[in-house]
Amino acid sequence: MTTAAIRSLRGEIARRADIGKPLRLWLRDDDAIEPTAALDRLLALTAKHRVPVLFAVIPALTGEALSRRLADEGHVSVAVHGWSHQNHASSGEKNQELGIHRPSEQVLAELRAGLKILSTLHAGRFVPMLVPPWNRIAPAVVAGLPDLGFAALSVFGPEKPAPLKVLNTHVDIIDWRGTRGGRPVAEVIANLIGVSQSHAGPIGVLTHHLVHDSAAWDSMAMLFETTAEQAGCAWHSAGDLLAQE
Predict the structure, then answer these.
(1) For the chain, what is the radius of gyration of the CA atoms?
(2) Contacts of 166 (CB under 8 A, 6+ apart)
(3) Where is the NodB homology domain (predicted)?
(4) In terms of Cα–Cα distance, which of 174, 175, 185 is closest to 4?
């Protein structure tokens, strides 16, 4: 089944090449805080396949250790992942840190602090992008982002109009509603092909290195191996894609 899925992906890549619209892929990894063995593994895997990766870093929980670890990784960029990744929603609601449960002024003040911390810690690799925890954010908070200095927003799913650039992710390799481990490779590839056939813009792949099991690592490796150095697709950095859009 995996072999058939890989053939299908190669066919989709060839189709995109034939119509002159190469597949533009980008990688976002959420919840980075500090150096770990899982972080090292992700850095090694992406470097091997020359895949740029944007880490959504939690400002309140990170520090110099992560900054030092990423300092010599030329294929890495950093964005703001909320403030402390704390849920403020009521019981029975979906988790949200940047929702309507607190005054928007309070939320924006935290995001301003987060932007300042990460732009200082990761100068030279920082992208002024907000990645909301759980991919949820209130419209009033979105409206205030440009005044804070944010240039882009990234959540999950189809892009919607906003007062700043939007660069979303569309394919999640984790089965959050089931095993909470990696989705089967064939399922991830089928998801990617489906998005490619219905979505004209860049396609974001979402990972969470801290919770990856063997299935998640296998999906990443297979996806990178199948898409590397193909005429009909390329992996881009978030910064480059935002400059193009």
Answers:
(1) 18
(2) 152, 153, 154, 155, 159, 160
(3) 33-116
(4) 185
